[in-house]
Amino acid sequence: MNHGVSLTKKPSVFMTVTWCLMAVLMALGLGACSKEAPPAAAASAAASQAGQKLQVVATTTMLQDLAASIGGDRVQASALMGPGIDPHLYQASAGDVRKMQEADIVIYHGLHLEGKMEEVFAALQKRGRHVVHLAEGLDKAKLLADEENPQLHDPHIWFDVAIWKDAAQYMAARFSSIDPEHAKQYAANLQSYLLKLDELDQYMKKRAQELPASQKVLITAHDAFRYFGRAYGFEVMGLQGISTEAEAGTADVSQLAALIADRRIKAIFVESSVPHKNIEALRAAVKAKGFDVAIGGELYSDSLGDAASGHG
Ligand code: ZN
Fold first, then answer.
1. pTM: predicted TM-score of the whole model, two decimal places
2. How far is the CA of 33 from the centre of ligand 1 (A)?
3. CA-to-CA distance for 159 and 165, rounded, in angstroms?
4. Phi-psi label, residue 111: left if phi above 0, alpha if psi -120 to 50, beta otherwise
């Protein structure tokens, strides 16, 4: 579902200026933009000895949350991409690279979620930093293929609680190998986090059962919810594809509008990390077909909400 109509993105997300990438590569290659940080092993050992928290830099808020849940009071976790930022389009700034160089541990998803940052992670790893690549810890047989690029996987794994449990286990294993002195703490944090995830999974299954099958249709701005759909029995449709790099075309809007009107679907959803205009255009197209569909609310697809608002 994507054609070549170009739409404008939020300027904060769309940092495509060439100098930015050059600054990133220079910072990695030459240390030009930051003082040289000590090698990761030495840094984490030093932090451990001093009883200081390990500085963990994650790409997204989902990974920041996972790192904080597993690390507990042993880690100080931050995210490069704050609430509402689209990871598919995000490019690392020189400041981001400095943060990653100075971190004890850097965590990213992989599976091309951070599609424009992969060279940065490779360079960090080459320099001996502790880089946790979450996808390496996942069983690929459990992952969905990207429908448009079947050789790739759908990266939105946080919407399947069972896969997120695997992610939590991998995170705990990596934290324990990097900081073995506190392995017991990570194991205990993991156990309580897994219990919470089980509760969440039960809650989701119970709530999903309350809906008749014909109403379990989730239509959103981009294809972020296929794992959710598989886990909880929803038919999911995104106006854009797996990555927001692929733009929705007028043909997509018109097809989806016809389907919504035919099946009398009650609501469609905007996402916090994707501009709302596509879904608003879809709603208008449905209206032109004589049916009124509501915007059901804003979903946190590729970014958590603002912690201060209670949606973190
Ligand atoms: Zn996405």
1. 0.84
2. 31
3. 11
4. left
User: Strand pairing partners for 219?
Assistant: 237
Distance, CA 59 to ligand 1 centroid (Å)? Answer: 14
Centre of ligand 1 to C-alpha 92, Å, is 17
Q: What are phi and psi of 297, to 5 degrees?
A: 145, 180
> Counting every residue, how long is the chain?
312
The CA 302 to ligand 1 mean position distance, Å, reads 5
Six-digit token pair at 130? Answer: 């502790």
> Which residues are within 8 A (CB) of 258 and not within 5 positions of it... i.e. 6 or more apart?
289
78-128 residue pLDDT tens: 999 999 999 999 999 999 999 999 999 999 999 999 999 999 999 999 999
pLDDT of residue 51: 73
d(CA 225, CA 148): 15
Pair 47, 28: CB distance under 8 Å: no
End-to-end Cα spacing for the chain: 31
- So what's the pLDDT on residue 245? 78
**Amino acid letter for position 170:** Y
Distance (angstroms) between ligand 1 centre and the Cα of 224 equals: 5
